[in-house]
Amino acid sequence: MSDEDLCTRPATELAAMVRAREVSARELLEAHLARIERLDPLVNAIVTLDSEGARAAADAADAQLASGAPLGPLHGLPVAHKDTHQTGGMRTTWGSPLHRDTVPARDELVVARLRAAGAVRVGKTNVPEFAAGSHTFNTLFGATHNPYRHGFSAGGSSGGAAAALAAGLVPVAEGSDMGGSLRNPAAFCNVVGLRPTPGRVPSHPTATAWSQLSVQGPMGRTVADVALGLSVLAGPDPRVPISLAAEPGLAAPLPTELTGLRVAWAPTLGGRVPVDPAVLSTLEASLGVFGELGATVEEDCPDLTGADEVFGTLRAWLFDASFGDLVRRHPDQVKQTIRWNAAVGAALTGADLARAEVAHTRLYERVVAFFDRYDVLLAPTTQVLPFPVETEYPTEVDGVELADYVAWMRSCTLVSATGCPALSVPGGFSPDGLPVGLQVVGAPRADRRVLEVGHAFEQATGFGLRRPAFSTAV
């Protein structure tokens, strides 16, 4: 079996192959390390690589398999961690020169759960500075390139993770999402990213454990891979006050038909967001698939009044809480967009936060009522196609000027404010050959439902099977 075939197989298949001893963990790792050596100079997705540490872990995984000891669901699979997630004994930079030499003492929870599931850590994936913004670049490592079009953005902030998956550098990855950081790069790189219901994947350590705006979650090349990753990452933790009980059957077989499913299609989220016509036409060309799978589709959207205020206020408050002191101590070593967002947070009053919380409650109630009528909501994941890496962020969409550096991602930030799980699944390609993502949104805590719908669409369309051109040329 060639490295090409091995490194582009789904994680679910690779896990089964390791268990059946069709391939050893060491062989699987060596194939991926060789591919990283060949392709990562083109993509710049892996910013820290520990080949020898990974080899030792892979050998230990093979020894564990030979001993007959119990195995985790990801036993022997290479994994790369987002460079904002602390990895014990491995550099974690947050994409900032202030942390170029930071080596945490221990793994944070999302990393520890993947390790406990048997995954073999190979390194860290690139991020924007402190994960701020949906385009992956920083002064330490430079920009991550889209595997489907060199010189174009891989999205962000989990852009290194998405690009690594698309390029076949790792079969398993994870990230985080406040305003689209799991969904946006998945859409740009033709892979799958899930923003789970807040609390489904507990985050620890964190200074803001009660906040529901930022979540962590899995990424993969298929929906089944993401479901497998979620089954490992999900589950309560007593240190995390919003953590949820495990949802049963997360990794159970997913359906390929959707008989009776009630689908709402919101191409512009009720007229609230401008969208590039190339994105809309690409997605609309595939909407008929849902009818063929047994679903009914209507154009409709929940009332998202107040969602912008909720997201903007709570994000700014979190930025001041997380970065305010840092910005004041090192203003010249933190990028301007972070300084701006932290300053907005510092200027908030108690009344501002109270209004946002009231609006948040009302928004949630309206969204829950909407999902009494529909099972899922479909919308574009991103409002634009991947753009050149030299562009820090889009300043207009379809002729509409944007207010700030996150406004081009309102198709995701509005959904973040609702507390709903949201999946980005490959939705097709523009006429110019750039990936487009379809966002599948479910009722709060209905994480399994969005996976089911995404899987059925994925299997019917096959968009995720289209690999980057260089993957067949090396």
Task: Write a structural description.
The protein has 15 helices and 17 strands. The chain has helices at residues 3-7, 11-19, 25-43, 51-67, 109-116, 159-166, 183-189, 223-233, 277-284, 288-292, 307-329, 336-346, 350-373, 410-416, 447-461, and strands at 46-49, 78-82, 120-125, 137-138, 142-143, 145-146, 149-153, 172-177, 192-195, 215-220, 262-265, 296-299, 376-380, 396-397, 400-401, 422-429, 435-442. The chain is an alpha+beta fold and 474 residues long. The protein has a single domain, classed as Amidase signature (AS) enzymes (Alpha-Beta Complex), CATH 3.90.1300. It is globular, with a radius of gyration of 21 Å. The chain is 37% helix and 16% strand. α5 (109-116) links the parallel β2 (78-82) and β3. The model has no long low-confidence stretch (mean pLDDT 97). It has an eleven-stranded mixed beta sheet with strand order 1-3-2-8-10-9-16-17-13-11-12, with helices on both faces. Strands 4-5 form a two-stranded antiparallel sheet. The protein has a two-stranded antiparallel sheet with strand order 6-7.
